[in-house]
């Protein structure tokens, strides 16, 4: 029978002392970049701690510096839900786009100057670290931004990630965001080892870092010399967080997280551009790969006011450095149809290595772009990875053009469903008009159709919709109403109880309103407010389907673009057939006078125009905008004589003076809330 070695107080005290010393030396080395002792001395202390822990295994804790060697291999990764989503960043590729980002923020905040925190954009893997009472408990990949993979066992092996936070005022729950990367030297050594073993080398440090972090065997991860720079926070429990991005970075550093030594506060576009030029010049000298610079609004209150789009924060942008250019041949030009119906020409290329990645395809964006560059099949072209990521064709090498080449022409009918292809007013973007029918748009169309503001069918999430479409159970929205408990039960992860709930929700959705139905069928440019206007003006679907562009434009809020898309939508036989099928399946709504009475009750702010200035305390501008739109109103960024109300928060800008001069009604936040109520 195994008997643990009894430990004495002296050895127990020495273990605590060694751990504390190693924590401090690690902090000085990895975070402050100021080594306090020689490597040999550090190794001797570390070995002494290992020997003592081997002698007294009962005293080993998960937070000990020795516990970074990895654990038993996993069979698969579990999924972890991020408490606060990890969103992507919008990109800028030139100074005009960067200045437009700055100007847009100034207009939204009604300010003349905004300060930003600038940081190198590492070419690595985004991760989320969760600490409870200062102890590392979970690590996850970014995943889709909502759900990531549980890589805790691998994260613990990275020496620059603190297992236990230092200092005071650590929140009881803290999510920290960072970028795991592989230094250039470590990448080179790893590929040399792979070649000696006859294994396939990694194409670039980012792939090497991502592959290392996602090893099922964390002992392999521990050998890969990974590191991290942290750049932000997610969920925060009890505790105070600084009020600016720059101070957040300083606080992270005090807690023991490595941050970029090149982060800097910049307060105008000239300073931003000077920072970009400095980093661009340093790029080749840095010990790790970067592909650009990230700019974030420094003031967290201003960040909150700016809010988010569906995929990215409005208060941050990634400026991407230009990439290497190479030449190759265009083998073919194919047209792809996206989930929103947009037609995109794609060049099929003779495979070529660009920036460490083999490129076989490159987007040609749209017909106008192809014509402007005059790209043809058989041409020899210059290719680069825009922002080091997206392959694009820069120009044609005309001297190498084949004699029999012909210009590219966008098809007039959808290559997937043969519906009419329509173009926007600028004649640049082409779209398939068969929205309810086109297989390429099917998943996106169904997702929109069942959404809360459309038909409001609960229980049909993105994963289930994908299964329904891929199994051919649903080819158009009308097929939803033919789903049974038996059919749904055949899908992965759906039992009889859930299937019953979904079928019940589908049945309940049959009784709707004309406006909801119009919004649900996904006519381009017809949002909630426009759908409500059309329902009120026409009263019946038959009358709307029979209308022409001239008749539609008699409605003050309906312009030529919206009228065009409505007429084209109902001109497609495929769309009309799906609408008739929906009615045959029992979808109905009250029309004429009954609908108008309901409409007047729900749209008390119809056509009223609002402008905001200053910061609201009880809600963000996005939340306020949604409330106004729900009640039929509109929000503009600039004041004019047509503005009905100016809502004033704290620290208002010049908009307030303009409103007073124009005699426009001014509401403080409490009056605005009263109006909403």
From TrEMBL:
CDD domains: BRCT_DNA_ligase_like (cd17748), LIGANc (cd00114). It comes from Candidatus Nitrosacidococcus tergens. Its EC number is 6.5.1.2. Its cofactor is Mg(2+); Mn(2+). Residues 600-677 form the BRCT domain. It catalyses: NAD(+) + (deoxyribonucleotide)n-3'-hydroxyl + 5'-phospho-(deoxyribonucleotide)m = (deoxyribonucleotide)n+m + AMP + beta-nicotinamide D-nucleotide. This is DNA ligase. Zn(2+) binds at residues 414, 417, 438. NAD(+) binds at residues 39-43, 88-89, 119, 142, 179, 296, 320. Transmembrane segments: none annotated. InterPro entries: BRCT_dom, BRCT_dom_sf, DisA/LigA_HHH, DNA_ligase, DNA_ligase_AS, DNA_ligase_CS, DNAligase_adenylation, DNAligase_N. One of its GO terms (biological process) is DNA replication. DNA ligase that catalyzes the formation of phosphodiester linkages between 5'-phosphoryl and 3'-hydroxyl groups in double-stranded DNA using NAD as a coenzyme and as the energy source for the reaction. It is essential for DNA replication and repair of damaged DNA. Keywords: DNA damage, DNA repair, DNA replication, Ligase, Magnesium, Manganese, Metal-binding, NAD, Zinc. PANTHER family: CHROMOSOME TRANSMISSION FIDELITY FACTOR 18, DNA LIGASE. Belongs to the NAD-dependent DNA ligase family. LigA subfamily. Pfam families: BRCT, DNA_ligase_aden, DNA_ligase_ZBD, HHH_2, HHH_5, OB_DNA_ligase. Signal peptide: none annotated. SUPFAM superfamilies: BRCT domain (SSF52113), DNA ligase/mRNA capping enzyme, catalytic domain (SSF56091), Nucleic acid-binding proteins (SSF50249), RuvA domain 2-like (SSF47781). It is an enzyme of class 6 (ligase). The active site is at residue 121. One of its GO terms (molecular function) is metal ion binding. The keyword Magnesium applies. Coiled coil: none annotated. One of its GO terms (cellular component) is cytosol.
């Amino acid at each position: 029978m195994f008997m643990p070695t009894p430990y004495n107080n002296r050895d127990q005290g020495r273990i605590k002392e060694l751990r504390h010393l190693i924590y401090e030396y690690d902090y000085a080395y990895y975070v402050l970049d100021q080594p306090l002792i020689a490597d040999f001395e550090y190794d001797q202390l570390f070995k002494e701690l290992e020997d003592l822990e081997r002698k007294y295994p009962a005293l080993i804790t998960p937070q000990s510096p020795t516990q970074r060697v990895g654990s038993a291999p996993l069979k698969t990764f579990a999924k972890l839900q991020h408490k606060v989503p990890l969103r992507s960043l919008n990109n800028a590729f030139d100074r005009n786009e960067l200045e437009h980002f700055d100007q847009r923020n100034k207009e939204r905040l009604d300010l003349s100057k905004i300060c930003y925190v600038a940081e190198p954009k590492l070419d690595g893997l985004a991760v989320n670290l969760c600490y409870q009472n200062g102890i590392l408990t979970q690590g996850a990949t970014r995943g889709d931004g909502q759900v990531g993979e549980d890589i805790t066992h691998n994260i613990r092996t990275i020496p620059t990630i603190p297992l236990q936070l230092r200092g005071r005022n650590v929140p009881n729950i803290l999510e920290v965001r960072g970028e795991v990367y592989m230094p250039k030297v470590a990448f080179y050594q790893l590929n040399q080892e792979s070649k000696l073993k006859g294994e396939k080398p990694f194409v670039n440090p980012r792939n090497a870092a991502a592959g290392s972090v996602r090893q099922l065997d964390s002992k392999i991860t521990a050998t890969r010399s990974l590191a991290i720079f942290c750049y932000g926070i997610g969920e925060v429990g009890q505790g105070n967080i600084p009020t600016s991005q720059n101070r957040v970075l300083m606080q992270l550093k005090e807690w023991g997280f490595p941050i970029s030594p090149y982060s800097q506060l910049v307060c105008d576009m000239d300073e931003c551009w000077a920072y970009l030029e400095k980093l661009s010049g340093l790029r080749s000298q840095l010990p790790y790969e970067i592909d650009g610079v990230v700019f974030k609004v420094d003031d967290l209150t201003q960040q909150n006011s700016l809010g988010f789009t569906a995929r990215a924060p409005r208060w941050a942008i990634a400026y991407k450095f230009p990439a290497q250019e190479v030449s190759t041949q265009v083998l073919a030009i194919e047209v792809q149809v996206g989930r929103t119906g947009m037609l995109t020409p794609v060049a099929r290329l003779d495979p070529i290595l660009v920036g460490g990645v083999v490129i076989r395809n490159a987007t040609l964006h749209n017909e106008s772009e192809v014509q402007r560059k005059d790209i043809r099949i058989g041409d020899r072209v210059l290719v680069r990875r825009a922002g080091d990521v997206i392959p694009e064709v820069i120009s044609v090498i005309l001297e190498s053009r084949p004699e029999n080449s012909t210009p590219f022409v966008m098809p007039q009918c959808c290559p997937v469903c043969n519906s009419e292809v329509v173009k926007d007013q600028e004649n640049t973007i082409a779209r398939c008009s068969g929205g309810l029918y086109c297989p390429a748009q099917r998943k996106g169309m169904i997702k929109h159709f069942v959404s809360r503001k459309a038909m409001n069918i609960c229980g049909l999430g993105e994963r289930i919709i994908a299964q329904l479409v891929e199994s051919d159970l649903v080819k158009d929205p009308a097929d939803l109403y033919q789903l049974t408990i038996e059919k749904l039960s055949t899908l992965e992860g759906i039992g009889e109880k859930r299937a019953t709930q979904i079928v019940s929700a589908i049945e309940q959705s049959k009784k709707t309103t004309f406006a909801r139905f119009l919004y649900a069928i996904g006519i381009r440019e017809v949002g909630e407010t426009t759908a409500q206007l059309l329902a009120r003006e026409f009263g019946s679907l038959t009358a709307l389907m029979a209308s022409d562009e001239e008749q539609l434009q008699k409605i003050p809020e309906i312009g030529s673009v919206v009228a065009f898309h409505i007429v084209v939508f109902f001109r497609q036989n495929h769309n009309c057939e799906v609408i008739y099928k929906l009615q045959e399946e029992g979808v109905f709504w009250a029309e004429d006078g009954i609908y108008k009475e309901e409409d007047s009750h729900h749209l008390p702010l119809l056509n009223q125009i609002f402008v905001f200035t200053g910061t609201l305390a009880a809600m963000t501008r996005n939340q306020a905008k949604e409330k106004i739109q729900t009640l039929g109103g509109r929000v503009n960024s600039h004041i004019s004589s047509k503005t009905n109300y100016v809502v004033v928060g704290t620290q208002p800008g010049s908009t307030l003076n303009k409103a007073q001069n124009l005699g426009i009604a001014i509401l403080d936040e409490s009056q605005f809330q009263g109006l909403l109520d």
